[in-house]
Each structure stands twice: as structure tokens, then as C-alpha cells.
Amino acid sequence: GLLGDFTKARLTDEPLGIKLGDERKGAWKLDVWFLDSAGYERHAAYVAEMNRRLTEESRKIILAIKEAYWRRPEYRDTVTSDHIYRAVLDSGARSVEDFEQFMEGH
Q: How many Å is the Cα radius of gyration of the chain?
């Protein structure tokens, strides 16, 4: 049940995803995170650094990859937005094909 999922998420420090509606038709997925102060500080620093590194070009590439993936069953489960950000910002992916090569190694 949902309460058990919340407990598991708290114990494993993993996000809990709540999916609302049919994912392939654009349903929302909410991630609920349970972080202690140190975990929050690490995540806030990561987000700030990612925002600093984003350019107009990298934003367009990220959106193009997300557009290609959002209806696929693996998106949000084994392929996440974080994978896309890391592929573009850390590994230089510039296309869906580059992203797919990135994912082969992860």
C-alpha cells in the first residue's frame, strides 16, 4: 500500500513516485523525497550547479530527448530526467542517438 511505499522510501532514501493517470497520455508523476538536512543540502547544491550549467542549447537538447522519450514505457522508471540531464551536461549528448549510447553504458 501507499503507506508501506512511504516507509520504504524513507528507509532507502529513494524517491517515491506517485503516478496520476495514464502515463502514455501525459499523466503526472510526483516524486516525494524524504531527506535529512545533509541530504537536502547535497540535493540543493546539485540542482544549483545543474541550473548554472544549463544553456539555451542544452535546454533545447534536453527537451528534444524528453519529447522523444516521454511516451515510452521505460521513461520515469529506468530512464529518468536525471539520466537525460547527466547525458547532456556531463557526457556531451547532443541528440536522441547520443542519449541512447549514453544509456547503454548505464
A: 15
Dist CA 97 CA 106 (whole Å): 15
Query: Using an 8 Å Cβ cutoff, are 89 and 53 in contact?
Result: yes
pLDDT digits (tens, 9 = 90+) for 26-54: 667 666 777 788 888 998 999 999 999 99
- Phi, psi of 79, deg, nearest 5: -120, 120
Stated pTM of the model: 0.70
DSSP label at residue 21: S
DSSP E strands in the chain: the ranges are 16-20, 28-32
